[in-house]
Amino acid sequence: MKFRIKVIITVLLVLFLIGCVDTSTIVKVNQDGSGTIEERVIISLGFMQLMQGMSGEAAEPVENLNLLDEDKLKEKAARIGENVALVSAESIKTDSGTGYKAIYSFKDINKIRINQNPAENVPTPGPGGPDAEETGEFITFSFKKGSTSTLNIFTPREELAAKKGQENQNTAAATDPAADPGMLEMMRQIYQDMRISMAVEVEGSIIDTNALYREGSRITIMELDFGKLLENEEQFQKLARANPDTLEETKELFKDIPGMKVELQDTLNISFR
User: Fold this and answer.
1) I need a surface site. Which of 96, 98, 201, 221 has the fewest CB within 10 A?
2) Helix ranges (DSSP H) in 104-171
3) Is residue 37 classed as helix, strand or coil in its secondary structure?
4) Domain extents in the chain
5) Is the pTM higher than 0.85?
6) What is the pLDDT of residue 255?
7) DSSP-assigned letter for residue 81
């Protein structure tokens, strides 16, 4: 029984760390392989209140909190890749959350990796926070300049599948969130404000691509709105029972839901000029 409770708590913490985030990332690639990364992160006010309660310290109202920390953003720039610099950063406040918008510049897309898992952006009480390597689900790139330039985008699907195959799967049957009404309702509260989107935009015109979701010079890798998932009880129950360990597994569950954009190919190819 103690083991089962520990598993449930661990699952809820992971879900809550991810589920409180509304985040979007746009990678813009120039003709020479340089470019920018535009990142927008909003943390729900409910999550911030929880963090205040866990810290046990008196604090100002969450509506007044400023999550913009340029030093941490500069550290993140170094993790994204070589010669990545923080260009600008500004605070964002909405009715439901608080966060920031940051723009990074890079000189060579070949040296860039983007963590599509938003957990590293989530503040935690006390020192430290989610480790980028442990939560990492990195998208990488290969670029060749030419009269028609080519950009390959690699998702971490195969790498994560191999890692998962090496892990002990005995905990999978330890709990079924969908069978516990209290846990299921908690998952609803967690997921209702979660949105994740990621896109790549190239300078010029796309000549050819195998991507499913293209609009002009922009390719959408994913666009997930968990609020829409909650409108489909069958799909929500499926998500709860699956209890995905990674964002890649979550994307697999979203692929057949109307209104969702989920690119499931391991490699996206773009030719542009």
Assistant:
1) 96
2) 157-166
3) strand
4) 2-272
5) no
6) 77
7) B
Q: Which whole-number Å values give the CA distances from 45 to 67, 96, 228, 240, in the listed order?
A: 12, 6, 20, 24
Cα distances from 100 to residues 118, 177, 196, in angstroms, run 14, 33, 15
Give residues with Cβ within 8 angstroms of 143, minimum separation 6: 29, 33, 108, 109, 110, 149, 150, 151, 152
Beta strands 195-202 and 149-154 are unpaired
Torsion of CA 200, 204, 209, 215, to 10 degrees: 60
For 155-192, what is each residue's pLDDT tens digit? 986 555 555 544 444 444 445 666 677 777 777 776 77
Radius of gyration of the chain (CA): 19
- Torsion sign across C-alpha atoms 76, 80, 81, 86: negative
Alpha helices in the chain (DSSP H): 2-19, 45-55, 70-80, 157-166, 181-191, 226-230, 233-242, 247-254
Q: Which two tokens stand for residue 176?
A: 């079924």
